[in-house]
Design a protein that fits this description.
heterodimer, A: 445 residues, alpha/beta, FAD/NAD(P)-binding domain, Arc Repressor Mutant, subunit A, 3 domains, five-stranded parallel β-sheet, 14 helices, 23% strand, B: 83 residues, Ubiquitin-like (UB roll), five-stranded mixed β-sheet, two-stranded antiparallel sheet
């Protein structure tokens, strides 16, 4: 049997591909409905080329060899001889599945950068606003600002506008001219222009005009401050604008969810923009035997790349042939993924948006002043030591939100750069989901 | 919708559709804040919305640290900001 963890584009494609030769597949997902974050839905999937989702869903649901397990959150993975055991919680009870092979497709989550008021109710990630509406039919507010960087801001702004939200601003920190740095990637991905036109039409329909080189630099009591920034994200002297909003949806690209692959002992590497991802071979095989990883966890590239990586992982795990056509398609999407990171890099200037009392670690309420104190007065030289002094990154989220930011801030204060070892170490967590000691004890029997 | 789910949030009745999360149901009533923080007592709501950040944790039927963005609302649930 092959266990696939995650029912987003990569996991679905992996399960579908593996089942083609009749291999038994167990598809485990934490959500009540399949589709992951990208194809989140209540009744049917909407958005650009959503027919792809419906086709995959139908294949998975009608396949005799795929068993779909929903609302199950995997909290640990262990070896049992040559087998792999996946332990999960479903409705408060602990269960486990054992298989010869495992495909991990846990996706990614929004990357966030701190600014004054980012911890206030009403400040959310674009993913949260999208999930709230697409998954639950609830709008984050009547007047919303969408900001940050990257192409994901477009579906979020247009989905909300279609739902009747007034998008009072769509602010992209970078200039679109950065795409001229990647001509080859664009030539290999001409279909992306169709997607751009799709969003452009929707923006025009709702009278939304994206504005570039601007970021949300504060949010409080229903007021958002929009500042002009230079290419290094430093605020320009130009006068900032204040607008009345119910909510701000601010996102800075995505961070791979490394938790489960980390627990499985899969080797990680740091890519050029500082993001930690899993190191996989051309068949998506990780450093661990019989463990494949596909999708955003092996590098941020979007749904198109995730679908291809998932298919390749599913074929490889089930011992089927991988065509060179599939590999070429993946290569083209990898070029696009590189262009994405080249077009929307996170620049150091974000550190200047925070005040001394701005919360950096949301869980433990650690401020910028606390982190500075740990470095300047207590002598912390790296983020690990700063974390021990301040508890930044030691709260319930286990540093998923702040650890990268804390490492960057400490590095800025000490005049060093964040080492790859530090980046990889901060992404490893012993347990994926909170579990009671009682269940933990029972699970070991 | 045929069925209506009804639960309490800090003693107040909240109604929602089946399948909606606790966070979605409460936010739909116009209340954003789901809890206040331990030290600064600052209000917090959902932030990541997908179970990563743990900012929306509430007490559900006496069980602490439940992510309001993930837990589906059920009739008769007693949800509180803190125990």
């Amino acid at each position: 049997m092959i266990i696939v963890i995650g029912a987003g584009p990569a996991g679905l494609a992996a399960a579908e591909a593996a089942a083609r030769n009749g291999s038994d597949v167990a598809l485990i997902d934490s959500a009540p409905r399949i589709g992951g974050q990208y194809w989140r839905h209540r009744t049917e999937v909407s958005g650009y080329r959503s027919n792809r989702a419906e086709a995959l869903f139908a294949k998975i649901k009608t396949s005799r060899s795929v068993t779909y397990i929903s609302e199950a959150s995997v909290w640990s993975i262990e070896r049992d001889g040559s087998l792999i055991r996946v332990n999960y919680l479903q409705g408060g009870t602990e269960s486990s599945l054992t298989a010869e092979k495992l495909i991990i497709a846990t996706g990614a989550y929004d990357r966030s950068l701190p600014f004054p008021g980012w911890d206030q109710p009403g400040s959310m990630t674009p993913g949260a606003v999208q999930a709230l509406y697409k998954g639950h039919g609830v709008l984050a507010g009547k007047r919303v600002v969408v900001a940050g960087t990257g192409p994901f801001l477009l579906p979020v702004a247009t989905t909300l506008a279609e739902a009747g939200v007034e998008i009072v601003g769509l602010y992209e920190a970078h200039s679109p001219l950065r795409w001229t740095l990647s001509p080859v990637a664009l030539i290999f991905n001409l279909s992306k222009f169709a997607e751009l036109i799709y969003y452009w039409r929707l923006l025009a329909k709702h009278g939304i005009r994206p504005q570039f080189g601007r970021v949300v630099t504060s949010f409080a009591h229903g007021q958002a401050t929009i500042s002009h920034v230079d290419s290094d994200f430093r605020m320009k002297a130009k006068r900032a604008q204040t607008i009345e909003v119910d909510a701000v949806a601010v996102g800075w690209g995505f961070l791979p969810d490394l938790t489960l692959g980390g627990i499985a002992g899969c080797k990680q590497r740091v890519v050029s923009d500082g993001t930690t991802v899993f190191d996989v071979d051309r068949n998506q095989l990780s450093s661990q035997p019989n463990v494949w990883i596909a999708g955003e966890a092996t590098g941020i590239g979007g749904a198109d790349l995730s679908l291809l990586e998932g298919e390749i992982a599913g074929l490889a795990a089930s011992g089927q042939e991988i065509s060179s056509r599939l590999r070429i398609k993946r290569f083209a999407k990898e070029l696009f993924a590189q262009a994405l990171s080249r077009s929307y890099p996170i620049r150091d200037g974000w550190k200047s948006w925070s005040n001394e009392d701005t919360v950096i670690c949301r869980c433990e309420e650690v401020t910028l002043a606390n982190i500075k104190e740990s470095v300047v007065e207590l002598g912390a030289e790296d983020s690990r030591t700063a974390k021990l002094f301040t508890r930044a990154g030691m709260g319930l989220c286990q540093g998923r939100v702040c650890s990268r930011n804390v490492a960057e801030i400490v590095a800025g204060l000490t005049g060093c750069s964040v080492s790859d070892e530090e980046r990889i170490a901060s992404s490893n967590r012993p347990i994926a989901a909170p579990i009671s000691l009682g269940l933990l004890g029972d699970g070991k029997k | 919708m045929s069925e209506i789910i009804s639960f309490t949030f800090n003693g107040r009745q909240v109604q929602c559709e089946p399948g909606q999360s606790i966070a979605a149901a409460v936010i739909n009533t116009g209340t954003l804040s789901l809890r206040t923080t331990r030290f600064g007592e600052d209000p917090r709501s959902i932030f990541c919305g997908i179970g990563i950040c743990f900012d929306c944790v509430v007490v559900v039927d006496g069980v602490a640290n439940q992510r309001a963005c993930l837990v589906t609302a059920q009739s008769g649930m007693k949800v509180e900001s803190r125990s």
